[in-house]
Specification:
Chain lengths: 210, 210, 210, 210
Amino acid sequence: MNGRKSEARMQVKQEVILARAIEAFAEDGFRDADVQVIAEKAGVGYGTVYRYFRTKEELFWSATYMVLERLGAHVRESISQCRGAIEALRAAGLAYAGFFEANPECLAVFVESRAEFHGRIPASHREFHEKMVQLFVEILERGVAGGEIRPLDPRSTVTSLGCVLYGAVMFGCYVEDQCRLSELAEQALGMLLGGIRVGPSTGEAASRPL
Amino acid sequence: MNGRKSEARMQVKQEVILARAIEAFAEDGFRDADVQVIAEKAGVGYGTVYRYFRTKEELFWSATYMVLERLGAHVRESISQCRGAIEALRAAGLAYAGFFEANPECLAVFVESRAEFHGRIPASHREFHEKMVQLFVEILERGVAGGEIRPLDPRSTVTSLGCVLYGAVMFGCYVEDQCRLSELAEQALGMLLGGIRVGPSTGEAASRPL
Amino acid sequence: MNGRKSEARMQVKQEVILARAIEAFAEDGFRDADVQVIAEKAGVGYGTVYRYFRTKEELFWSATYMVLERLGAHVRESISQCRGAIEALRAAGLAYAGFFEANPECLAVFVESRAEFHGRIPASHREFHEKMVQLFVEILERGVAGGEIRPLDPRSTVTSLGCVLYGAVMFGCYVEDQCRLSELAEQALGMLLGGIRVGPSTGEAASRPL
Amino acid sequence: MNGRKSEARMQVKQEVILARAIEAFAEDGFRDADVQVIAEKAGVGYGTVYRYFRTKEELFWSATYMVLERLGAHVRESISQCRGAIEALRAAGLAYAGFFEANPECLAVFVESRAEFHGRIPASHREFHEKMVQLFVEILERGVAGGEIRPLDPRSTVTSLGCVLYGAVMFGCYVEDQCRLSELAEQALGMLLGGIRVGPSTGEAASRPL
DNA sequence: AATGAATGAGCATTCATTCAT
DNA sequence: TATGAATGAATGCTCATTCAT
């Protein structure tokens, strides 16, 4: 029982450290963030951070992965109630952008992680990416099967969707004083969906709110 | 004449330093890049770098700006021969992605700069962004006036286009083993254009090559 | 107990660093002294110095303050056994000069600190100065009350005494091959005391040994 | 004739550089003063400074020597009209302190030079010192011969005088908000003179204005 | 002679990581 | 297991000095 208690405590501690790490990396970037400060904010000793994460880099990738997990959960939850495929795509897209809008520090870490790839995407991140792609592919296939969506190649369509959503989130810094991230994504996604939906795609359809 | 010679030489030297800086920042990122190494690669003394750029940060932003200038020139050149608006948009989009495909170190610096914004986009970068937006707005307005493009709001449309192109370039790392950057952009752009072009937007139109 | 041990050790370490810093600043001056060297001499790691002193400057002022503390202790001790005021003044003056004679590295740091003031005397130094003035004022007032010293304004008299002692210590470098610092101070102080003592101040009194 | 013109010009240029050097060394101290800045302020090219002074150190000692020359001229001029020895001593002392009061940048350089001695007084400075001592010795001997001053050992008396004046000038930073440098020197000098003048040295004599 | 661009040695400071307690 | 004192490699930046023009 002692072991369990201890395990649970450690689990909590690790999550606290990760949460503070996200904030620190968001604030200062990977290189400028200070492990000392993260430890202080997490309320643990300096060396303790190194008992949970071998290196600062491991801490960073764990923190970015936590962001991905939260993002994934948020997106999956958003589509749980959706019936139609188009509806699900819209909901997922809005959830994707909305998550970063609601958690700016996650966005900052997300951007930071993209820069830190330097050509080497960690396996965990690649797996997350694949899962997300799979999720969208399934929605699309469901939509195609149900006659809601034109029979496009699912993977390349998802890739294009990915560009739009990833782009909206990354590009948002240029328009943040004009519109919110979710509006940006809604708009761009709307235009894309207008082009792939079955039936006469009128201008109205493309530009009206999702 | 002495002055001119000297000025010309200094101009050249500065550009050499910037070129090597782009490579170094691409390779190691802003924080890990070593000014000493940049100096060596540029064939100048250490202190000389600091005669041309007050700080490493100034060097970094100058380098990223040089990337933007090259990118801008490449894009502008690509549309110089285009007649139609849709044609120009396709050409510009392909040039945008093609530039980063042909210059991976510029892409790396581009990504790095996005991460280093940390909420503060340098004025020079914002101005570049505005010019690019203006360029696309003019193309769109020309297309609308010529009846080639549906009467959408130009700015928000350009913003969506921006998301797609920016997104393709940033998102490319996830698909680089499946398709090239320009293919990715072509595909995503095609889907978007399919949705904004006048006339019945058929599935065929949206997915066929640009 | 663990805490105490650690605290005590750190206290010792800090004092060792300060002691070596005094030597280094004495040898090379503030600007030329190398923190690396101080660390080595103190037998601690480089970074350790910065755990105890935020900056080289803080280390310098701490070192100069340690000199003042030693000086103050030496002077106060010297007058503890004195009965008469004149006797105390003589003893204090000799202790003042004698301290620097016995600790040349303290003298060098003392001089260095005077140069580094640049118009801004650190609060701690000003406070030390005030305490010293107060000490001498009290001696003088005791001497005046006891009829041993003429009723001069204590503060301006102490200021003049300060000039003589400070001057002797600073001026000593010009005469060091002719007489020792304490002799110099004794001589100058003797002349000054000859002028303020009650009774006919004969030449003999002014120039004879204190 | 060309040569002469050139020589004269160089003479002027050198003095301009020295004058600006004094200001710079006074402002920032020897180590922190920037030769580049001195050159700019002097209105000459950077390298030109090095045509007139082999090293920064040589420039510094030349600058400090210029201070001494000005000081010496000021002091010598002050006593040119004095008849009596006591009168001359007072005048010289006041001129000494008054010079630094009127030229704070010279005082700063003077202090800086004391710190930079590090045990090695430059020959030129030692010679100046000797000349000053000689000047005062002659005044004293004249005073003794004329019966105005008691037959003290001239050299040790001058040394004590030196302590008082040097001390007043160096010590002034502690009392600058209470009295001016010249007042400080006047006061301290008055006390000392009260002690060495022939005749009954009353308290009044010692403390009344010079 | 005058200039100022070029140089690189030198140094303060930071911070990830280790390890004794 | 938790801690935080200790470490020293790493690096941005300065500035005295040189030398080609």
